[in-house]
Amino acid sequence: MGSRHHVVVVGSGFGGLFATKALKRPDVDVTLISKTTHHLFQPLLYQVATGILAQGEIAPPTREVLARQENARVVLGEVNALDLRARTITSDIQGRVHQLSYDSLIIAAGAGQSYFGNDHFADFAPGMKTIDDALELRGRIFGAFELAELAETKEELERYLTFVVVGAGPTGVEMAGQIAELAHKTLRRDFRSFDPRQARVVMVDAAPQVLPPFGAKLGAVAQKSLEKRGVEVLLGGIVTTVDQLGIELQHKDGSTTRIEAATKVWAAGVQASPLGKLLADQTGAQLDRAGRVAVNPDLTLPGYPEVFVVGDMMALDNLPGVAQVAIQGGKYAARTINQRVEEKAPPGPFKYFDKGSMATISRFSAVALVGRLRLTGLIAWLMWLVIHLLYLTGFKNRFTALLHWLVTFASNSRSERTATAQQIYARLAIGRLEGGTASVASSPAHWNDLRAELEAKAAEETRLTDSGERGSRVEAG
């Protein structure tokens, strides 16, 4: 890229992608750095985990999305260093270090799962933040039913058929509802030694109600709908133990409850990207308990007007960590940069327009909060369907997602039930490697040796064919 104003965007989520697309002007160059190759539509991850959608339908390649934007470049890498004074940013991918300078920086690195200081829980209760998480959970959920077919005791069968979802927010509600629907509808005729409708689905949370941000009325409606579908809702209990065989809760009165369960899903709490601490250390900005950075009203960092923080990483006016905050923040940052490049007045403080919140419970059942309007049941579900379809990236993904939804809702079948051992165990295996995936990546020297070996083998194959020796007996000397 040339000497034009250079904008570096960190993250390919809602904030990063929408910021990049809003910068498609001829007078700036944009480099988007992301540790994944795709843009993830995170609100539909649970549908990948429960076999409704394929991962490609909610995670199109970022390069494909930005292919027609000539001033945008996509770089794969995880940002691990920043120098705000020098205006440089450093990323790494499997030991390959890449450094970029910038004129403006938009950090939209998002958030990961929070286990509230108990990260070892992740070994047995995957979160719901990435495609890897969703595929692992798909393997664990469908694998539990497969293992239940082989159970030799009643206790073993009950453990395999018990699913615990930690968290009563939108993700937890949606996961619990879909696992119950799997057991009672999709899989009800697929097994011979047990009835899948015996499955026990338990949703737990320390909060006193389901869906707290939706208010008491919609929370009560959601809880009643889940219970009608066979989901047990346990509120007011803090998770104190998660192990291979189950989960333990501690209640307000000090009593404890042990639930034996092979499959646990963690849908409670988020923690902002570690980049937040790097930014705070260099700027003196405050961090909240979730690791989010306190920003100025124009989403910039104190003392660094060229650095914007958007989405799940920013702390401003108690804004929620939802897609619309990231989208609007990304667009606002891009608009501010455009105004500066054109030497025009800035757009003023960031103002968030709340378009409402929605959560689906099961087929034809959802809750929606739009301003003062509270919707439930089929109307809310149809609204949820339309909104999520519109926000999927690309016509191809919208079309295939709609087809999958039609098949699932009309027949109870799910086309994405394939699960592999690699999906289930790869995360834990990589975590045990010193250096992670970089430790198994081949070096250039290795590839040169392999190339020489393959070339020699190909030359010998050619010689055997041309000389007519292939298939002929070679007499011992």
From TrEMBL:
Q: Does the keyword Transcription apply?
A: no
**This protein's GO CC annotations:** plasma membrane
The main location is: membrane
Cofactors that this protein relies on: FAD
Start and end residues of each FAD/NAD(P)-binding domain: 6-330
Q: Which Pfam families match?
A: Pyr_redox_2
Single GO molecular-function term?
Answer: NADH dehydrogenase (quinone) (non-electrogenic) activity
- Is this entry keyworded Plastid? no
Name the protein family: Belongs to the NADH dehydrogenase family.
Task: Report what the protein is called.
Answer: NADH:ubiquinone reductase (non-electrogenic)
Q: What species is this protein from?
A: Nocardioides caeni
Source taxonomy: Bacteria, Bacillati, Actinomycetota, Actinomycetes, Propionibacteriales
